[in-house]
Amino acid sequence: MADLKPVEFRGSALDDLRAFPFPARREAGHQLDQVQNGQDPDDWKPMSSVGKGVKEIRIRDDGGAFRVIYVAKFVDAIYVLHCFQKKTEKTAKTDLDLAEKRYRDLLKELGQ
């Protein structure tokens, strides 16, 4: 079995994920595990407005709608940029801006 790419959380993303209700947290873990195994999550969409190669995992449960924004195109790790509960139909600009800032900071760190 190939080595799994580690998952690295940026900023407060891990704490934000831990704040999800248990079923949504478990589902997020399962979806990230699929990404680690080279598969796409069950429900996702590209987030090119945040950055090249950035994707959003979409999770729905009784507690509401939850999102995990990540990028997996780099060799060394899967980077989770932002985790949040979606309150409206349209993703809040503050959530998109935060994910975009973390993506830009990551690119600088990686020398991209």
Automatic annotation (TrEMBL):
Domain of life from the UniProt record: Bacteria
Protein name: Phage-related protein
Species name: Halothiobacillus neapolitanus (strain ATCC 23641 / DSM 15147 / CIP 104769 / NCIMB 8539 / c2)
